[in-house]
Amino acid sequence: MGEPEAGSEFAILAAAAGPMADAQYILPNDIGVSSLDCREAFRLLSPTERLYAHHLSRAAWYGGLAVLLQTSPEAPYIYALLSRLFRAQDPDQLRQHALAEGLTEEEYQAFLVYAAGIYSNMGNYKSFGDTKFVPNLPKEKLERVILGSKAAQQNPAEVRSLWQTCGELMFSLEPRLRHLGLGKEGITTYFSGDCTMEDAKLAQDFLDSQNLSAYNTRLFKDVDQDGKPRYEVRLASVLGTESALHSEMTSRLKSYEFRGNHFQVTRGDYAPILQKVVEHLEKAKAYAANSRQEQMLAQYIESFTQGSIEAHKRGSRFWIQDKGPIVESYIGFIESYRDPFGSRGEFEGFVAMVNKAMSAKFECLVASAEQLLKELPWPPAFEKDKFLSPDFTSLDVLTFSGSGIPAGINIPNYDDLRQTEGFKNVSLGNVLAVAYATQREKLTFLEEDDKDLYIRWKGPSFDVQVGLHELLGHGSGKLFVQDEKGAFNFDQETVINPETGEQIQSWYRSGETWDSKFSTIASSYEECRAESVGLYLCLNPQVLEIFGFEGADAEDVIYVNWLNMVRAGLLALEFYTPEVSSWRQAHMQARFVILRVLLEAGEGLVTVTPTTGTDGRPDARVRLDRNKIRSVGKPALERFLRRLQVLKSTGDVAGGRALYEGYAAVTDAPPECFLTLRDTVLLRKESRKLIVQPNTRLEGSEVQLLEYEASAAGLIQSFSERFPEDGPELEEILTQLATADARFWKCPSEAPSGQA
């Protein structure tokens, strides 16, 4: 591999490095690290099921590498550099060298934590919060370790080249590089560096006009000889634009004029990575349990080969129909949280095994769903015409590739499928067991009286909240749509808007989706609606009985669920950036909005009070009056939920933005003074845990499960052993792909935006 041409361009971006890192931008040495335990669930799989799980896991891990290219210009180089270091020397061997070079034990541990963070987040920005993290040791010392390492001795030119390309950016805290964002507000590789929010809106309108999904695209902007912008919409696929193989996508790959702007639709993004995904999906087909799984995989292969979201939708239909599989999985460009515009999907893939005991409770919840939907505070016309009873299982995760691991999932995200075909819910049991466990001494902002109760009931209450959030939160509500033939899916004459008392004035046109219409607020608004449904329905005794709670225990579960939400609303301030008045994490913004709604309800339901801690530093206390949850909290939530649903159903973007952004505004207005409280939250924040995942290895015809210790070194080892056959090839692929597009993120020019 020659020296990447991108080095000099990246250096320009990094030259104005900010101050030495504060706590926001580092991962602490004592960060929590937990291992996912799926040993028992894996042991119960048959040999064929293990082979199926193995090849799906390989496909997921390969595809997850694309996230590096979806995060920051330097992330692929950092990954390649770390992979070379730890392939040549394991963490213990490298430690001896680092100490000899003059690093302290703390500095070397800081480097291991940084490396584990890169692997865990698939890049150098936190998956939860989109904040950059940098190594917590002097750059000169890290340079000595890298350039004197065994990897550098084996390949001096290549290691030096990688360091020259990414070393500056690894440490840079120039304001624009501190967070993911668009234009001057941050860095993103979903768009070229000179794209603005106006370009993103124009591109979305273009995609809508061609009935093309943004999920598997990136947008690159160039300027022609006349100074006019030219846009490339690049689809993710194995095949390139010039492929002779005809498919439904071939006719889309051409030039377009749109509102006086030139658009070119191409494909082939992440091609060599997706080639490896497809190879393992092909192998998995041989071990599928039924024809639905075979057809599902065939459509995924078509999607990744051709760049077709329609094929992925077809695969998702078969996936929805594959009820209660022993090995559950999903793969593709799925969640749009990290696209600053909110339309492009990050690659993820998961493979998991069913936990039968908890799944039985979720099945009871599904059986009660139609009845529970009637409890929600909107008229029947605003609910789907028919509840499509979904699968809802508790899973033990074997593999979850991408930038982070959620607690629960409700997928697919395609509105048309969700409205007509249904969806699946999964709760990730072994993730919940380790990721959300809390130590009393690290529990912030609660009264001493609440802490023991909180620790006792947080896990059980979160099971209830996740179940309701996924099934009846994301699974509820109807979108009013006019199709391409002009037909409506609601009665224009009789359906009345309960907020205005008038007939429905707005709806979704053909080609418009929730994400494309509500764009930047879509993800957080929907999470807020789902969280609110969970809080609202957890008050129902029938729900709590399903999960085995009655009497005083049931009341404690309700109290802790609500208390956890209002505490989370305060913790959310960590994920707000005052400099640009923006939120960096959809779920946390949602929880802050709910806190504001419950504070607004008044009558002493919720209070947030600044205090001084026992250490003499600023602190705060969150209080919830458990006796007022039903009398004050429920009516407030009812009004808010109805407004959220009505604005969503009718596609009222202006009304939705006004409502949501109003509650999401962070000011220093008394009595809460949230901007000041944000400093307190940052002072006392606890970093999110890193999760160590196992590997599977094929030995002959048997699949072995390889587990690793719960430490930064264990996490690094798991990645060092993840790609034993082709690690060096993958590093070369990643750096070549990054270098090919590096020019798009050189020092930003003031390129003109298109005409919207």
From TrEMBL:
Keywords assigned by UniProt, alphabetized: Acetylation, Aminopeptidase, Cytoplasm, Hydrolase, Metal-binding, Metalloprotease, Protease, Zinc
Q: Which residues bind Zn(2+) per the record?
A: H469, H474, E527
In this protein, the active site sits at E470
The GO terms this record gives for MF are: aminopeptidase activity; dipeptidyl-peptidase activity; metalloexopeptidase activity; zinc ion binding
Quote the Gene3D superfamilies the UniProt record gives.
Answer: 3.30.540.30
- Provide the catalytic activity annotation: Release of an N-terminal dipeptide from a peptide comprising four or more residues, with broad specificity. Also acts on dipeptidyl 2-naphthylamides
Report the subcellular localization.
Cytoplasm
Q: Which GO terms describe its cellular component?
A: cytoplasm
Look up the EC number in the record and give it: 3.4.14.4
Cofactor binding: number and manner: Binds 1 zinc ion per subunit.
A Pfam cross-reference name: Peptidase_M49
Task: Name the enzyme's class.
Answer: hydrolase
Record keyword Protease present: yes
Cofactors: Zn(2+)
Q: Which family does it belong to?
A: Belongs to the peptidase M49 family.
The protein's name in its UniProt record: Dipeptidyl peptidase 3
